[in-house]
Design goal:
The complex is a heterodimer of chains A (200) and B (572).
Chain A: E1 5-12, E2 16-21, E3 33-37, E4 42-53, H1 57-64, H2 70-79, E5 84-95, E6 98-100, E7 113-116, H3 119-125, H4 134-139, H5 145-162, H6 168-180, H7 184-199
Antiparallel strand pairs in A: 1-2, 1-7, 2-5, 3-4, 3-7, 4-5, 5-6
Helix pairs in contact in A: 5-7, 6-7
Chain B: E1 9-18, E2 22-27, E3 39-44, E4 47-60, H1 63-67, H2 70-73, H3 76-86, E5 87-100, H4 106-117, E6 127-128, E7 138-141, H5 144-151, E8 159-165, E9 171-175, H6 176-181, E10 184-187, H7 194-207, E11 212-217, E12 226-227, E13 234-235, H8 238-242, E14 247-252, E15 265-267, E16 269-270, H9 276-280, H10 283-286, H11 292-303, H12 308-314, E17 320-322, E18 328-330, H13 335-342, H14 346-360, E19 365-366, H15 373-382, E20 386-390, H16 397-423, E21 433-437, H17 441-444, H18 446-449, H19 453-460, E22 466-472, H20 480-483, E23 488-491, H21 497-503, H22 510-518, E24 525-530, E25 537-541, H23 546-554, H24 562-569
Parallel strand pairs in B: 10-22, 10-23, 11-20, 11-21, 14-15, 14-20, 16-19, 21-22
Antiparallel strand pairs in B: 1-2, 1-7, 2-5, 3-4, 3-7, 4-5, 5-6, 8-9, 8-25, 12-13, 17-18, 23-24, 24-25
The chains are: A alpha+beta (200), B alpha/beta (572).
Bound molecules: adenosine-5'-diphosphate and magnesium ion (MG).
Adenosine-5'-diphosphate binds at residues 188, 190-197, 228-231, 523, 541-544 of chain B.
Amino acid sequence: MEKIIVGRLLRSNTRACVVGCPPAQQFPAFGSLVSIPLSETEVVYGLIGDIHIDDDGLVRQLATAPSVDEAVIQDNRLNRNVPVEMTVLFVGSKTENRISHLLPARPPLSLDCMYLCSTQELCEFTAGSRFGYLRHILDAQDVPAADLLAAHLAQAGAAQRAQGNSAWFGQAAARIITQLRDDYPRLMPILETLADVENA
Amino acid sequence: MTEKSSIRKLIGSVTGGGLKENLQVRLSVPPQQVQEGSFIVIDSQEWFFYGIATDLQLQAVDPRYALEPSRQRLPENLAGLLDQQTLYTNLVVLPALMLEQEPADPEAQMAWHKAIEAGDKEKPNPLPVKSIPVHHADAFLASAGDVAEIFGKPEEEGNFVIGFTREQDHPVCVNLDKLIQRSSGIFGATGSGKSFLTRMLLAGLIDRNRASVLVYDMHNEYGLDDTASDTGQNVRGLRSGFGAARVQVVGVGAGAAIRGSVPDFNLVLGYRDLLPEDIELLTLELNLKETTPTVLDALKQSFGSDHWFKAFKEMRRGAVIENEDGKKVPAPDSVAYWANQCGVNQMAAEGLHDKLRRLFNRPYILENPPADSIQAVMDALKKGKHIVLSFGDFESDLDYLLISNLLTRRIREEWEKITNEFRSGKGQEPRPLVIVVEEAHKLLNRDMASQTTFSTIAREMRKYYVTLLVIDQRPSQIYDEVMSQLGTRVCGWLGDEDDIHAALSGLAGRDALRGMLSRLQPKEEVLLLGWGVPMPILVRSRRYDEQFWKDVKSNRKVGLDQEQVIKKLYPD
Ligand SMILES: Nc1ncnc2c1ncn2[C@@H]1O[C@H](COP(=O)(O)OP(=O)(O)O)[C@@H](O)[C@H]1O
Ligand SMILES: [Mg+2]
């Protein structure tokens, strides 16, 4: 199956990158697992940690206008040339079919293509009781870590459950508790956020 | 060890501690699965460590996890996951013994066994702890095999099942030989089960024929059947259990009846049996003055040890006659006359005479008893019979002190004599003897202990083949020096701080054991302590009932060789 490109890389560093895509296109949800191929045999994985829609002069003008025609709004949304920016938090990589939860050896380059991972790939990346990649989320700065965790666990949990692994969510939660149990003020709000996933 | 008996239950792992402050084990099971007093085994590389649980403490990674119930903030499953990782129980283990393990590797194991067989290596024995297990060593509740390894196998000669471990019901043995090699004690508040436990231990001793037993049965509990004061059920006595051929009930006083039955024979004292030193032991009871020894000494000088009692008894108190001058003077058969003659203070002599009147009238003291019943008791004991001396109606302290002291003095003299004969190559080896003393503090308190034969026996241990089994509800009243000599201590519930302190005196890990003693279940549980047991352990005491007697009888070993028993008792 031909994969759909969801965007191209704008800038990156060791921990994260920013990917842009045209606003007209359906972009992936917060917390989704995405992949950026570096070569034939090497793929970087990341989570959408932030979605950013910038303004421009025209939007500012329109926002102050007393009334704006619906057609103008749609035109501005779809045809503007400022991309939707997505911050992608690196969580691991795959080399020769071996998945690693370490940060990629080198970041992707500008205009590299980013793809949305399939459920299959999501399960593969989160399989086993290896939850090492969770630390990248917990350590992330400038993104809402608790909600990102919650969003990721909700998606991955559902994918795993669909594959018959209903214990996955609990195992992941246990792992988060292990990592943060010495930090009560941080752990409790995260667990409360996860509780919302559970209830949903 | 069968497969099943060696299965241990994993309960956690060692996280800290030391020899001085006990070991800390983090539990992986709910706290209720382990109880105070549990026998714990720790598997640490080449060694097993054995100890008992002395405390359980709730702990949290951060106190805030404990203070705020997680279920108030989180759904059930997340709260469960959180509690699992942040809340735990810390088990405090008092380590007691360590035992070398056989190697796990089959080849090394074979070499190990060969070395032991060839005598190049000593067969490992449990040693007192000299080291500690490694971090994270697994901790287990002991299996039946572990209990047997340390306390002895129930089926082995000389071992007697006294009770069972608290959670898992593994039988715990006491070694009867060790029990009587030194004097022992059974303590506990009134109603805690001392008499029931004593009946069982005595049944064990008699059944296995370890020694002759002489019981000073102040309250007539041990010989004939009794009725339990709380349940009203019949409680079998030792004579009905073993028959009169092995256990004889001796009643104090001629024609005495014990609980309406006729005893096998009676104990009657002759005037000659009473020595001045027997009277001195009654100083407290009779409230004698400090002049008493002087008066007694003068009596002995005047009439000899054999006749002083009769002579003194027959003197008349305050009798006077008129002399030639018409003056009233003491009559020649009066106490005063004798006192003046011997230069003894008259008031002192008359005072003693007044006080001894209580003795002069005791019906069990006769001038010429029909038989030497003290000798009869000793002969029966020497022949391997067991005697329960029932005090019948003579339950007063005066009777108990007088008779038990006098008889014990005579026994010790006799056993010392036959021991010395044996050591110089004449005569047979003496029959080991255990003297059982109820209400021991009456005889072994601070004021009396220095004078009584009992404390001598406790102190010289087994030199003359006689040891004590003391039973008491107030161990704090027993002279410390005697307490410190007690090898095995079996301790039921004690409420009083001083008594707990006394029962534990001289033992390692006292602080940890103290709380345990005060929380024992009365009538059900006892703590085994002291030299005679490999390590302290809490047991649910065996039930004393008809089943017990059935078990004793079906277990009976026949043809036990007396010589072998003595060899085991006194190997050196
Ligand atoms: N091992 C036991 N088996 C059965 N009953 C027991 C046992 N120990 C104690 N009891 C019960 O407790 C009561 C008190 O025990 P007892 O030995 O007379 O106490 P103590 O001699 O310490 O005052 C007994 O009457 C009996 O009902
Ligand atoms: Mg009693």
